[in-house]
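Q: Please design a sequence for this.
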């Protein structure tokens, strides 16, 4: 998969250095993946959920949420938000729906 805006992801994660290694694992895995559906994603990341076109990944034991738009047909992943669990609960990320 091609991950769009991965530099933005790394910039946003700079204020959460404890998540950096988990995000790098996610990024490396996503770039090697051939995900065509949620079921494919869940083989690697079982707790992932889809909300419309958005995939929500739990990062670092559910402390953080990574929200991306999946374009399965184009084999692209668009980074939208990287949030703490508390920020995610405020639901501002839903603007991407």
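A: Design:
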């Amino acid at each position: 998969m091609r991950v769009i805006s991965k530099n933005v992801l790394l910039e946003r994660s700079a204020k959460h250095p404890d998540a950096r290694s988990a995000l790098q694992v996610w990024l490396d895995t996503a770039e090697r993946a051939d995900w065509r559906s949620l079921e494919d994603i869940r083989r690697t990341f079982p707790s992932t959920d889809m909300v419309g076109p958005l995939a929500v990944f739990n990062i670092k034991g559910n402390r953080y949420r990574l929200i991306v738009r999946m374009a399965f047909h184009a084999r692209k992943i668009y980074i939208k938000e990287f949030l703490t669990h508390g920020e995610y609960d405020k639901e501002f990320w839903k603007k991407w729906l």
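Q: Thanks. Anything notable?
A: The chain has one domain: 2-96. Helices lie at 6-12, 20-32, 38-44, 85-89.
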